[in-house]
Amino acid sequence: MAAAAAAAGGGPQPPQPELPAPGLALDKAATAAHLKAALSRPDNRAGAEELQALLERVLSAERPLAAAADSEEAAAAGGGGGPGAAEEEALEWCKCLLAGGGGYDEFCAAVRAYDPAALCGLVWTANFVAYRCRTCGISPCMSLCAECFHQGDHTGHDFNMFRSQAGGACDCGDSNVMRESGFCKRHQIKSSSNIPCVPKDLLMMSEFVLPRFIFCLIQYLREGYNEPAADVPSEKDLNKVLQLLEPQISFLEDLTKMGGAMRSVLTQVLTNQQNYKDLTSGLGENSCAKKSHEKYLIALKSSGLTYPEDKLVYGIQEPSAGTSTLAVQGFAGATGTLGQLDSSDEEDQDGSQGLGKRKRVKLSSSTKDQSIMDVLKHKSFLEELLFWTIKYEFPQKMVTFLLNMLPDQEYKVAFTKTFVQHYAFIMKTLKKSHESDTMSNRIVHISVQLFSNEELARQVTEECQLLDIMVTVLLYMMESCLIKSELQDEENSLHVVVNCGEALLKNNTYWPLVSDFINILSHQSVAKRFLEDHGLLVTWMNFVSFFQGMNLNKRELNEHVEFESQTYYAAFAAELEACAQPMWGLLSHCKVRETQEYTKNVVRYCIEALQDWFDAINFVDEPAPNQVTFHLPLHRYYAMFLSKAVKCQELDLDSVLPDQEMLMKLMIHPLQIQASLAEIHSNMWVRNGLQIKGQAMTYVQSHFCNSMIDPDIYLLQVCASRLDPDYFISSVFERFKVVDLLTMASQHQNTVLDAEHERSMLEGALTFLVILLSLRLHLGMSDDEILRAEMVAQLCMNDRTHSSLLDLIPENPNPKSGIIPGSYSFESVLSAVADFKAPVFEPGGSMQQGMYTPKAEVWDQEFDPVMVILRTVYRRDVQSAMDRYTAFLKQSGKFPGNPWPPYKKRTPLHPSYKGLMRLLHCKTLHIVLFTLLYKILMDHQNLSEHVLCMVLYLIELGLENSADEESDEEASVCGPERCHDSWFPGSNLVSNMRHFINYVRVRVPETAPEVKRDSSASTSSDSLGSLHSSRRPKVLQRENSGTAQVFSLVAERRKKFQEIINRSNSEANQVVRPKTSSKWSAPGSALQLTTAILEIKESILSLLIKLHHKLSGKQNSYYPPWLDDIEILIQPEIPKYSHGDGITAVERILLKAALQSRMNKRIIEEICRKVTPPVPPKKITAAEKKTLDKEERRQKARERQQKLLAEFASRQKSFMETAMDVDSPENDIPMEIATAEPQVSEAVYDCVICGQSGPSSEDRPTGLVVLLQASSVLGQCRDNVEPKKLPISEEEQIYPWDTCAAVHDVRLSLLQRYFKDSSCLLAVSIGWEGGVYVQTCGHTLHIDCHKSYMESLRNDQVLQGFSVDKGEFTCPLCRQFANSVLPCYPGNNVENNLWQRPSNKSIQDLIKEVEELQGRPGAFPSETNLSKEMESVMKDIKNTTQKKYRDYSKTPGSPDNDFLFMYSVARTNLELELIHRGGNLCSGGASTAGKRSCLNQLFLVLALHMRLYSIDSEYNPWSKLTQLVEEMNSQLGNEEQPEVPILYHDVTSLLLIQILMMPQPLRKDHFTCIVKVLFTLLYTQALAALSVKCSEEDRSAWKHTGALKKNTCDAEKSYEVLLSFVISELSKGKLYHEEGTQECAMVSPIAWSPESMEKYLQDFCLPFLRITSLLQHHLFGEDLPSCQEEEEFSVLSSCLGLLPTFYQTEHPFISASCLDWPVPAFDIISQWCSEINSFTERHAEQGKALLIQESRWKLPHLLQLPENYNTIFQYYHRKTCSVCTKVPKDPAVCLVCGTFVCLKGLCCKQQSYCECVLHSQNCGAGTGIFLLINASVIIIIRGHRFCLWGSVYLDAHGEEDRDLRRGKPLYICKERYKVLEQQWISHTFDHINKRWGPHYNGL
Q1: Separation CA 284–CA 279 (nearest Å)
Q2: What's 1263's DSSP letter?
Q3: DSSP 3-state assignment of 1764?
Q4: How far apart are CA 630 and CA 571, in angstroms?
Q5: Burial code of 9-34, b = ≥16 C-beta within 10 A, e = fewer?
Q6: Which residues contact 1527 (CB under 8 A, 6 or more apart)?
Q7: Which of these, 1629, 1647, 1543, lies nearest to 1589 by C-alpha position?
Q8: Alpha carbons 1500 and 1562: distance in angstroms, whole number
């Protein structure tokens, strides 16, 4: 098939012999060599033609097939791998031709040798792990591949590792992007001199072959692209074409990797215009080529693009260039071709909309528009390749190929220009794309490589109008989703805004373009060009105005909104990314005086755009009620450039400010936002749903605040400093809707606000004023001061981790702005204001991270409540800051009570903003303050302490910032004043404070108490009118200074506004529209208001002094301090005033007032002198009394509640201490479980459910709450102390065969090979892996109570973290996790005293008794509730572990198996307790798990079940231990396998079997007897093992010395004698023979001294003694003595009664002295040895192996981890999984055994279990501890649940980096790892970790 196609390719046949079926490599090579020779001749025309013909044929061979494969039917018909074969063939030809007859690989190597590239340029795709070093980077986007990073020197740099989101390329070697000091060893600039010149003939063929090859690829792309019907390419078709082209593109990609020489050839090919023209013009006879050219033109057209030669669309617009009609026509043309106005909703409103649109587009530089948006002309392969790359939505392979070429400088420039040329087309494709996310990433992957380079960006800006293109493209993009703005005047608004619900905004589709724009603005040369170009600025302001007023919120007044739209997030993101970030980028270049012009330009066009906006929305002076938008980017641009102008460029503020009228308009919307924030927090917007709260939070949130609330407040500060203060203040109160509240009357009517919102709105208004007047962020603070203030505010709210601080401190979003996270100033400020608290552990197991906490002096001097309020997202954070401040004052003894927020001195104001302080000195504010003080004093409703606090704060601010000292005299004579002269004489707060106000006329509702009064002030029978009739000071001469007017803020404001408008606007009548809907209706309209006159007779000073009395609750509490100490006036900064409550604040203010003027000082003294008569009993109306009582009652209730809570908390704490100290078991007070008190007659149990106490009985048994879990911890013990290291290279491996579990497994299978199965199962213990561990919290409950408790849990639908169906529950008392109940055996302690007594029976008698008792068959007690429970708990124990860990027998289900399992459970629990005690019993004392030990109960349950299986007396090992048997060899005659020799038995297992076979409770002397007998066996085993370990010479020496002493008196207790006897007995068999090579391994090279032998014997016996002592402790409740390690043997043996009591301790202790032989020692030993001899006759090797038991296991450990996390990460994150051989998406490694697994990987799933779950069952019997490589965290799997444990790797600041998001270097935290290991060993994961969830086998 392939051959036929090749022949049909046509074209002139070359003169060389007809090619056979292509496929013989030899021919290809020959042809290639021949052609190369032909081309090397000087006259190479013939060769060239010949090559062309060959290529034509070879390459066109595949085209029809590809086309066929493209159309569905042909693909179905054509079958098999036809197309693939032809393509392979073509590629083979190309490779052959390139190599010119040589081998392709050799050719590659040859080309690589000439690689002069000094750049790395490695291209990676998403999810690749790369590095970024801020110290070395010039551009913020700089990145390095791991290899270059590790080969460079970045020690001490600020770097991090990151996962690439969009892909990227390595910048190593590129000095435009990074400093050369950071280059790696490979790319430290190679000088081009040492690279030899490329020989001409090496790449000659490439220059001929590649153009054809690339053209062939382009033809493919043309033909594969079918223009889809709905203008949406169907994904499937595109992907199919791309799949077919995979080999071709990969081939090109491989070429790029050959290095610089090949890249420059490719560059020539791709950019050569002549080549392109010759090949693609589509002329000539080839019909295929024609067809493909047509397809290309169609594709261009369908993309809304024209080809310049087609004069169809374009021609119309050509002649009109430059004429006036162009703008409109151009606009129509653009939208026509772009199809942008076709959405139907826009056409409906076309009238109004077109107008808005057209007006805008006219502004944009539309001469460029058309060409930017609609014309593409391709002149080279590169351009058309990029075109198709875009058309096909950026296939990854193509992107990688195009990027791989970038190290070639010439290519880089050409490609960048091409990219810019296609920019508009990219935008259109992106908008249509379904996969816009992937596509966005691919676009940025390319653009970030191009635009991060300043030199390149500048060049393209100059030559290709990059800025024009970008701005225009962005504008066009946004124009497709505009809607009419509804702000202000819904009907007549001409303003259009973006619709945040559109996919374009919702999915953030615009971000690639915006991020490119931000990227190029970070280059100074480009940004300056932008700021100089007026046309561009106008267009940009146009773009920004699309966002002005978007996402408008209208307050719902009736119904709750049905659907909460979440568009607000899109709106905030859009403003931040599309408006604010470019703004910060521009601002970063306006830092010096020389850049003044730029600022002036921006400000000018900003104001113009704002003016247009006000006109478009028809704005006059009143904002529309009940609507708010948080988006005012134009205001913010204006504000930020103003701030910059004053701060950095020394511009005069007034020169860039507009007129007063404009300022009044400018302040309205930002002020509206501040008022709305207060409304939202007062729950007035509650019907708009949660999302409105979300907006209020986002507005102040750390990532947004410096682009949103900060500029808004600054703009308001600027307006306030330039407008009339009275006007500004009254505007504020009116916006906050609290004007009506500001009256002296006790009742008022608020027409615009419900009563319940009044208090919080008033607080909001005052707080806003305080922030406005005291914030200095843009008014004079330096950058370092700002950083410090921000940091202090965040730390005061809560202790913070380093990373959360970095996140919370609003850094200027542009990375070049100076505060780079981790930059020098951040760290130095942090260390100045905060102390580091290292990460700690709490006993509960919750792990803290490293935190920073404020230093004491920061609390003392720098805590600034205003800054805290400004920066809190949640209101509770303000409270938290105050609580912490209170705690600090209490602790440091500065103030005991509840302090008020401290007053903090401010940074001095920048001179340009001095006008701001006039707000504090305007009558309007003073009247408000006076009124509020009066109302607070009179206890009017709706006023809180917070209001008073803010009022005092404002007064204090006023005193701090008072105008120059006024002369006292002048102030006392009042000139005739306009307006409200009867209120205050002047505007200076200092003098107004002492001004007495006598009468005030108020408007009150007729019902108010003030109204009923007669005019005479004396008959004050009813109301609060004439409270204090103190005489007025003499200063005020006129007796009746006229009643003060009713003061209306609103009227004032209107008047001021009118004046200004009239000044600036002649046709004022047209501006001020009549206010029909006026909210302040004429008196008597709504509620009858009448005027009353109140007698006040107070001044601010007198009110303050009375307030002091009121706050302190004492009369005359204020005494002027300067009367005692005149010094106070000279040095007023007294520490005692800096912290305190309201009283302190009042004293501080009075002191400041006295300081400021002698007059005030005198008046204060005078007021104090008049001993204030007692406050007349307040005539309180019934209603008020009610509210007061209510308040009091509430207060008392609150105090009671506090007290109760405190008491409850302390009780809880003490309970937790006794019940829950899982991690501090040392000092436990044992709970009353009936093991520890022998003197109680019968154990009494408390049921924690029903609360009754009583004994456990047969029919109502009590049980212990227990948790059963399978455990493999014991199996992980190894025999070396050093824990294994986690492998971090291919060489390191961990082999499991030296673990305890493996050794025991091998032993059991060895025994089972040679001995009788039933006997083997009694000779060992199992449960090293998958053993059942039982633990309890120590609480008991009735078993029937437990059942009903489980029922209630089952019906409880709340999803718990455990599964009730599996029997899981939490202890009803301590909430510890449990899954079973262990019944308590009744009458536990009855015979205590009897069987504790030592008896004097001889050991022989005891042995007989033991034998008899074991012989009695155990019958199961009759069917009682207790026995049922015993059975069910046994079933639970069995089901706890998997079948494979229970069944070791060869015959399944044999009873021996159950028997083995049961005594192994006891063994497991004893061994684990030993490990919890640290592996020995030196510490002694009660059991560490004293109160939590359930071994006693467990033993009873096990014994009960074991007695059901009686062992035949002839098989009972007891007889073999205690009796001599006559005929030994009789049973060997039978065919069956022999029994296990007694010396191969595990002695500890024998002990448990013997004890559990006895009827319970056991007598102490029987126990001791069993131990004594077993010790003799153990000792003999030790001797035998020792004899095998030593060399032949040693053996014969010992045999000899021992034999001499054999007849001494205590020969049976001398180890030498016994050893020599053992050796001589065993020598009879073949045990010591075959001293072959293997033997040497076992023989220890040390010379054995008597001491070392004694030590060996003791160490061999110790594990048995430890377990036995523990058992004795649990069965008989005796304490364990504590001792030194070296005396452990002797102490334990005497404790167990092995040592005779009269034993002297002087001479060194000999272990043999503990022996007490029940029968003559030598006889029994020889009997035991003969068993072994008969076995070793046949199997000497195995016989020896079985004798040497390794009993000295060290404690189990988790794997040792490396210091630095990077070593783990670099090895494992690229490692392939051994099961599926892929690199896992989520790799994990088991910390117990080091196995590498795929987390959640479906690839390694077996029978619906994912790999981690499977591994946790195999490795840990259901418990798995995995380190997730990509997240640095550890997860625990426990059975069917899992939890995230946390991380044991912390960064330099002591915090985790989950998911490696920050990518900072991480170091092991040894303490944490110890905690993890401790929890693993003590099996307490379930209790300590709280957050468990089911994993459904999916991990």
Answers
A1: 10
A2: E
A3: strand
A4: 9
A5: beeeebeeeebeebeeeeebbebbeb
A6: none
A7: 1647
A8: 10
Tokens coding 488: 């202000």
End-to-end CA distance of the chain: 50
Angle, CA of 595, 774 and 663, to the nearest 5°: 55
User: What are the helix and strand counts (H, E) for the chain?
Assistant: 77, 28
Which DSSP category does 1324 fall into? Answer: S
Closest CA to 1844 of 1890, 1789, 1880, 1887: 1890
**Mind listing the pLDDT tens digit for each residue in 231-255?**
455 566 777 777 888 888 888 888 8
Q: How far is CA 1458 from the centre of its chain?
A: 49
Return d(Cα 1727, Cα 716) in angstroms, integer: 105
> Cα separation of 580 and 1285, whole Å?
51
Return the structure tokens found at 1315: 């001995």
Within 8 A by CB and 6+ apart from 445, the residues are 125, 166, 167, 168, 399, 403
Q: What is the DSSP string of 878-916?
A: HHHHHHHHHHHHHHHTS--S-PPPPP-PPPPPPGGGGGG
**In 839-849, which positions are buried (b, 16+ CB within 10 angstroms) versus exposed (e)?**
beeeeebebeb
Under 8 Å between Cβ of 1757 and 1280: no
Residue 1791's alpha-carbon distances to 780, 1285, 1753, 1765, 1877, in angstroms, are 56, 10, 20, 14, 10
pLDDT of 895 higher than 90: no
Beta strands 1253-1254 and 997-1005 are: unpaired
Q: 1849 - beta bridge partners? A: 1868
Structure token pair of residue 216: 């062939």
Give the CA angle between residues 519, 522, 527 to the nearest 5°. 110
The one-letter code for the residue type at 1740 is A
Beta strands 123-124 and 1377-1378: pairing type?
unpaired
735-786 pLDDT, tens digit each = 999 888 888 887 888 888 888 899 999 999 999 999 999 999 999 888 889 9
Choose from 275-289, 546-560, 1191-1205, 1355-1369 the range with maximum mean pLDDT: 546-560
Nearest C-alpha neighbor of 1050 from the set 1478, 734, 677, 629: 734
Question: Cα 1652 vs. chain centroid, distance in angstroms?
Answer: 57
Gap between the Cα atoms of 400 and 382, Å rounded: 14
Coil, strand or helix at 700: helix
Q: Are 1050 and 1080 in contact (CB under 8 A)?
A: yes
Radius of gyration of the chain (CA): 46
Please name which of 711, 753, 713 lies closest in space to residue 626, comparing C-alpha atoms: 753
Kindly state the tokens that stand for 358: 């057209």
d(CA 1413, CA 1435): 27
Structure tokens at 700: 């102040």
Q: What DSSP designation does 642 have?
A: H
Instruction: Indicate whether this model's pTM tops 0.85.
Output: no
**Band of pLDDT at residue 287, cut at 50, 70 and 90:** low
Scanning the structure block, which residue is given the tokens 């990373």? 803
Given a contact cutoff of 8 angstroms between Cβ atoms, the answer to whether 1591 and 1632 are in contact is: no
Higher pLDDT, 1638 or 8: 1638
For the beta carbon of residue 380, count every other beta carbon within 10 angstroms.
Answer: 20
* Helix or strand run (H / E) with residue 1597: helix 1592-1604
In angstroms, what CA-CA distances link 540 with 521, 643, 721?
Answer: 13, 20, 29
- Cα–Cα dist 1650/1130, whole Å: 91
State the DSSP H helix or E strand holding residue 1553, giving kind and residue range, or none if neither.
helix 1547-1556
CA distances from 168 to 442, 1421, 1586 (A): 9, 76, 67
Higher pLDDT, 1074 or 1430: 1430
| Total length of the chain | 1899
